[in-house]
Design goal:
The protein is built from ten helices and eight strands. The chain has 298 residues and is α/β, with parallel strands linked by helices. The chain has two domains: 146 residues, Rossmann fold (3-Layer(aba) Sandwich), CATH 3.40.50; 113 residues, Nitrogenase molybdenum iron protein domain (Rossmann fold, 3-Layer(aba) Sandwich). A four-stranded parallel β-sheet has the order 2-1-3-4, sandwiched between helices. A four-stranded parallel β-sheet has the order 6-5-7-8, with helices on both faces. Bound molecules: zinc ion.
C-alpha cells in the first residue's frame, strides 16, 4: 500500500511538474521584450519599470522584492540608470542568485558602447543622472541586437538544455531586426542632418543612429528642471540651427518645452521612450515603428 502511495505521489509529481523555465525579471519593458523574444516558451519574464514611467525614478515597492525573491536571472540596464532604486530591491529580495557579480545578474550595458561618458569629476550633488555616460542605449536598434546576443549567451549558460531554442530565437530576432532597420533607415533618411532639441538626453543614441543633430536640451543637466537663463540659451541655439523638433518624453509635461518652442519655432513632439510607453507599442520593434512614424508626421 505504501509502495502504491509512493508511486502515485511521485508519479503525480512528475506529471504535475512543468518543464523547467527560467524565471527572469528585467528592469524595463524593453529588456523584457528582447528577453521574451530570445527565451520564448522556455522562460517567464516580468519587469519592474512600466514603459510609460521615467526609469530613473522608481518607487521600491515590497511587491517588487517578492517578485525578485523567486527570480533565476535579473537583467539590468546598468550604467547607474537604476542606482536610485535597484540596490535596495535586490537586497530586499534576499535572493542570493541575482545579486550583482553572480551568474544570475546580467548588466546589459556591458554589451554596448556607451556614449557621453563624462571625463571630469562627477558631482552627484549637482543632480547629474548620467555619471557613467548616457544609459538610454536601448533606443538605438543596433544596441538591441547586442543586448539580444548577450541575453542569449546568458540563457544558454543558465539553461543549456534549451540552447538550441535560444539560438534559433536569436536568429529570428536578428532577421526581423535586419528587415526593420532597413525600413527605419529609409523612413528616417529625409531627416538626416536635421537639428533637434531634446528635453532629457533620452534619444541621443537614436538621433545619432539616424544622423540628426542635437543642438541642446530643455534640461540644463540630466535630471535638473529648466531654468530661465538656460531656456534663453537653448532657445537661441535652437533658433540659430532652425531646430525642427523638441523631443519630449511621454512622462514629461510638453508644456515645459513651450518657452523654447515659442522662442525658436521648433515643434514639440511627445515621443515614447520604451515598450509600453503608449498604447499599441507592444514590443521592441513597435517602439521604433512609433518613433519613426511620429518624427515623420508633420
Ligand atoms: Zn537619463
Amino acid at each position: 500500500m505504501i509502495k502504491l502511495l509512493k508511486a502515485l505521489f511521485f508519479g503525480s509529481l512528475v506529471w504535475a511538474t512543468p518543464a523547467f523555465a527560467l524565471n527572469i525579471v528585467t528592469s524595463t519593458q524593453d529588456l523584457a521584450s528582447i528577453t521574451e523574444a530570445i527565451g520564448g516558451a522556455d522562460v517567464t519574464v516580468t519587469y519592474i519599470v512600466r514603459g510609460d514611467l521615467d526609469p530613473h525614478f522608481v518607487e521600491a515597492k515590497p511587491s517588487y522584492m517578492v517578485k525578485l525573491s523567486k527570480a533565476d536571472l535579473y537583467v539590468a540596464v546598468g550604467m547607474d540608470l537604476e542606482v536610485g532604486w535597484l540596490p535596495s530591491l535586490l537586497t530586499g529580495s534576499r535572493n542570493p542568485k541575482i545579486q550583482p557579480g553572480t551568474a544570475g545578474y546580467l548588466d546589459a550595458s556591458r554589451a554596448i558602447r556607451p556614449i557621453e561618458v563624462p571625463t571630469g569629476t562627477i558631482d552627484r550633488s549637482r543632480g547629474d543622472l548620467h555619471p557613467a555616460g548616457n544609459p538610454h542605449y536601448w533606443l538605438a536598434p543596433e544596441n538591441g541586437r547586442l543586448v539580444a546576443r548577450a541575453i542569449e549567451q546568458k540563457l544558454e549558460a543558465l539553461d543549456p538544455t534549451h540552447a538550441a531554442h535560444f539560438k534559433a530565437n536569436l536568429a529570428a530576432f536578428e532577421a526581423k531586426l535586419n528587415t526593420k532597420i532597413a525600413e527605419w533607415k529609409t523612413k528616417m533618411a529625409p531627416l538626416n542632418g536635421a537639428s533637434v532639441v531634446g528635453y532629457h538626453s533620452t534619444f541621443d543614441y537614436f538621433l545619432g543612429a539616424y544622423g540628426l543633430k542635437i543642438v541642446g536640451f530643455v534640461e540644463p543637466k540630466p535630471g535638473i528642471a529648466p531654468t530661465p537663463s538656460h531656456t534663453l540659451e537653448v532657445s537661441a541655439a535652437a533658433k540659430a540651427a532652425k531646430a525642427k523638433f523638441i523631443l519630449v518624453e511621454q512622462f514629461h509635461d510638453p508644456r515645459d518645452a513651450g518657452p523654447v518652442a515659442r522662442a525658436s519655432g521648433a515643434k514639440v513632439l511627445t515621443v515614447p521612450t520604451a515598450v509600453g510607453a503608449m498604447d499599441g507599442i507592444n514590443d521592441y520593434f513597435g517602439l521604433f515603428d512609433r518613433i519613426v512614424t511620429l518624427m515623420n508626421t508633420p
